[in-house]
Amino acid sequence: MELWNAISSLPPSPTRFYDEMFSGQAVRPHYERVQALLSRLSFSEREARQAAMNRRLLEEGITFTLAQADQPDALERTIPFDFLPRILTAEEWDVIERGVSQRVRALNAFLRDVYHDQNIFKDGLIPRRMVLGNRYFRTEMMRMSVPAGTYITASGIDLIRDEQGRFFVLEDNLRSPSGFSYIYKSRSIMTHDFPEMYFSYPVRGLDRSLGAFRSALRHLAPGGKSDPVIALLTPGSFNSAYFEHAFLAQQMGLELVEGRDLVCRDHKIYIRSLNGLKRVDVLYRRIDDDFLDPLAFRPDSLLGVAGLMNAYRFGNVAIANAPGTGVADDKAIYSFVPEMIRYYLNEKPILANVPTYLMSRPEEREYVLERLDQMVVKETALSGGYGMLIGPSSTERERERFAEKIRDNPDNYIAQPTIQLSTAPVVLDGKLVSRHIDLRVFAISDGPNVHVLPGGLTRVAMREGSLVVNSSQGGGCKDTWVLAR
């Protein structure tokens, strides 16, 4: 009933979405200079500038692999980039920054608890079976001490803004969130190709953030080593986010390695090189738990390192993010995060969740099944826009199929009321059109300290009317500016 009360307390939807740049016919004050600069450009000038930016993305190899249902082979392409920035005021960012930091601290405390004392189960806040039966829960991590007590080094928290302009958390991404590199490349494009717009605003810089990221990884090194060897473990060049892996390794001075480049000797991890073996102290992994170590997880994995988990257990190497972290970003566990904040931090949540129905609860399941045309249904273990039903744009047949799936495996699904994501203008063929957006905010945890990158990645649903912003589903991006006070 608490969930239903939260739903019913939401104000009725207005006829228009919240627009980031316009309030009715008026331009919001912090967008006035954007509007002034834009009004000086003709359609052809806008189109030419947009084309030039996208050409630079292609020339620099800034790509993402796009999977399409009607094509068996994945397509490698640039992510559509829009030169109109998304601007957040200092006051708006203050709420986001404090809310994201609070959320990450609570999620880290939750992971520490479920892999050790499990007090949250004993106190009845979360059903034990929901966690222990989760596909991302790793019994191998039970009672294991992780370096600096940090399970979540890098996280991406997805936010949306509703019809009234309020921010809600849509998802937590805690395993190996992608998108860091696109923040930096978006900023580089704007400063290089549209400097008259960028430098007309007091935009908070990103310079400190990669340093904070490297510092957080260095902090994990066994024995407090002052100059540890840090490696980024990638699945390889065919991975959809390989550009990002190479970018981060280059920018932070990390060794870029694949599983075949590593070997375990005497419960220590080494890089094979022409000069012999080089010991690794910290491994920033961009592969899933299942593939980390064929001796501990999937025996058919060719991406990981045999013996890695034993080296981790012996305290000879740190892994970021820690194995087993995925249990905290499961979409069903997400619904309990506000309670985690109260429980572990004794604080009131700063950022609210989107109200969420658990299909494992019979009364909520029946409520949703009667209203599928109004709901967004998600498979709890999937991400990237896969395994979803968007009720208002679905067909009756699609809803029938999802209803069958929900009844067959209710634990695998959650549902949320359709939130009308905020919109922002984008330039297509020189014309301004409105598209839905969200915001992925990145946070770096260094022990108890959380650094939130100022701005984050604004993702754009490039198809008219679409609410799916994921890059893997054809979404684009914008540079996101946080204004200094």
Gist?
With about 475 residues, this protein is an alpha+beta fold.
Describe this structure as you would to a colleague.
The chain is built from 14 helices and 24 strands. The chain has helices at residues 2-8, 32-39, 43-59, 90-114, 119-122, 128-132, 180-193, 195-198, 207-219, 242-252, 308-313, 337-345, 362-369, 396-408, and strands at 22-23, 26-27, 63-68, 71-78, 81-88, 154-161, 167-173, 230-233, 255-257, 262-265, 268-273, 276-279, 282-285, 318-320, 352-353, 357-358, 375-379, 388-390, 413-417, 423-428, 431-446, 449-452, 457-460, 476-482. The strands form 6 sheets. Strands 5, 6, 7, 15, 20, 21, 22, 23 and 24 form a 9-stranded mixed β-sheet that branches. The protein has a 4-stranded parallel β-sheet with strand order 9-8-13-14, covered by helices on one side. Helix 4 (90-114) crosses helix 12 (337-345). The model is unreliable at 1-15 and 68-72 (pLDDT under 50). Residues 85-461 form the Circularly permuted ATP-grasp type domain. This is Circularly permuted type 2 ATP-grasp protein.
